[in-house]
């Protein structure tokens, strides 16, 4: 059997393997999101039942104010945690897809380099300059791709850092607001009790 059909079959097999791995990564991420949402729904339903019982025990407006302000901070924390979990799942899937893409590109570059080497062996005398130019172009393209990949990874790290900083600032603001509301509600409760 000729080497060319074997190479074609090998490329097709590699493409199918990459497709299957991509689908597996996407499905695993989707499965994690479903699992997370089911857990959130169950926890929310349990919390609603508990909060409903607590709300039924509220006797005066000051207790109602304290009860309502006590709901703010846990809700903010839970929303932040949920967002972080979703982000982690999506980032994990994205990382897996990037890894698969990089492997696929590396395989293609290796195959292209091999094809250029085969072409160089079979090229007529006097075409060494053209072959060297093609090899140089391939090396330049590979270097440019590597530089862009590194820059994209750095940008993603900066974006993740900024997202974490913004999330922490939002959480701190929500916590501060809940604390301030609790401080306002606590003196009123004491005055009403007196």
**How would a textbook summarize the main sheet?**
none
- Spatial shape: elongated
CA-CA gap between termini: 97 Å
Q: Strand tally, please?
A: 0
Spans of at least 5 consecutive residues whose pLDDT stays below 50 are none
User: How many separate domains make up the residues?
Assistant: 1
The average pLDDT value, as a whole number, equals: 81
Tally of alpha and pi helices: 3
- Rg for CA atoms: 30 Å
Oligomer: single chain
Q: From N to C, what is the helix and strand string? A: HHH
Query: What class would the helix/strand composition place it in?
Result: mainly alpha
What tags apply to this protein structure?
single chain, elongated, Phasin, mainly alpha, Phasin (PHA-granule associated protein), Phasin_subfam-1
Task: Summarize the structure in words.
With 194 residues, the protein is mainly α. It has one domain (2-183). It has helices at 3-56, 61-122, 128-193. Helix 1 (3-56) packs antiparallel against helix 2 (61-122) and helix 2 (61-122) runs antiparallel to helix 3 (128-193).
